[in-house]
Amino acid sequence: MAEEQEAVVEEQEAVVKETGAVKKGLGDAGAIVKEGIVASLKGVSEIEAEIVSLARNTVANTLQATGDVATESLNVTTSVIKGAVQATEEMGSGVIMGTKSVAKGIIMGVSDVGGDLVTAAGQTTRGAVQTASEVGLDVAMVARRTVDGILEATTEVGGNVEKVAEKAVVGAIEAAGNIGKTATIAVTDILVGVAGGMKDVLNAVLPKPKEKEE
Q1: What is the largest CA-CA distance in the chain?
Q2: What is the pLDDT of residue 112?
Q3: Neighbours of 104 (CB within 10 A)
Q4: Cα dihedral 131, 137, 141, 145 sign
Q5: How far apart are CA 37 and CA 43, in angstroms?
Q6: What is the DSSP secondary-structure string of the chain?
Q7: Is residue 117 within 8 Å of residue 96, measured between CB atoms?
Q8: Are the C-beta atoms of residues 88 and 110 closer than 8 Å to each other?
Q9: Listed range (19-23, 47-51, 87-91) with the worst mean pLDDT
Q10: HEC profile for 81-121?
Q11: What is the pTM of this model?
């Protein structure tokens, strides 16, 4: 009888040890994944910061070199955002996230040299949407990421977020309108949250179906 009880106790102890080992293993697995994700996100943040810095310095330096911020900012911002979208095409659609960082850098660069943020915002979204269409990327997603970057930068530099947001959204929708009805609907839908209370603005730039039919 004593031997049987000892055997039962030993079996229970083995189960407890095994269960503990499994739990520890699961804990280790969770820790490994957690640490990997944190490290990856840190890496992504560093890359995004580098892209912002690259775009910012490129825009600011180019505009300073031309000596004509008011005139050249349109050309420079368009050129930079197009380069970013084209890079996305070459590197894969996953890099589409980078358009936000580039847009942010553009606005900060324009701000550094005292340029017009509102005008730059509209030109940046137009260039992004147009180029996204040309290279076959998700136009709506590019528009959203671009607007997100513009608004983030505007907030950080203390610009007029409302006016910049309006111009950015209008620029994106107008560019989509040149592409087609499907693009216009997709871009409008994804930017509705950004537009907030700008229904009048959206109505003004959206194509009128009845007028198109006549």
Answers
A1: 99
A2: 93
A3: 27
A4: negative
A5: 10
A6: -HHHHHHHHHHHHHHHHHHHHHHHHHHHHHHHHHHHHHHHHHHHHHHHHHHHHHHHHHHHHHHHHHT-HHHHHHHHHHHHHHHHHHHHHHH-GGGGGHHHHHHHHHHHHHHHTT--HHHHHHHHHHHHHHHHHHHT--HHHHHHHHHHHHHHHHHHHT--HHHHHHHHHHHHHHHHHHH-HHHHHHHHHHHHHHHTT-HHHHHHHS--HHHHH-
A7: no
A8: no
A9: 19-23
A10: HHHHHHHHHHHCHHHHHHHHHHHHHHHHHHHHCCCCHHHHH
A11: 0.73
Q: Tokens for 177? A: 């309108």
Closest Cα to residue 97, out of 54, 52, 56?
52
Residue 186 CB neighbours (<10 A): 19
Which two three-digit tokens encode residue 79?
Answer: 């050129």
Question: In terms of Cα–Cα distance, which of 103, 125, 95 is closest to 205?
Answer: 125
Q: What angle do CA 192, 198, 204 make, to 5 degrees?
A: 100
* Phi, psi of 10, deg, nearest 5: -65, -40
What is the tens place of the pLDDT at every residue in 80-120? 888 888 876 666 655 567 888 889 999 999 999 998 999 99
| Angle at 188 (CA atoms; ends 187, 191), nearest 5 degrees | 85
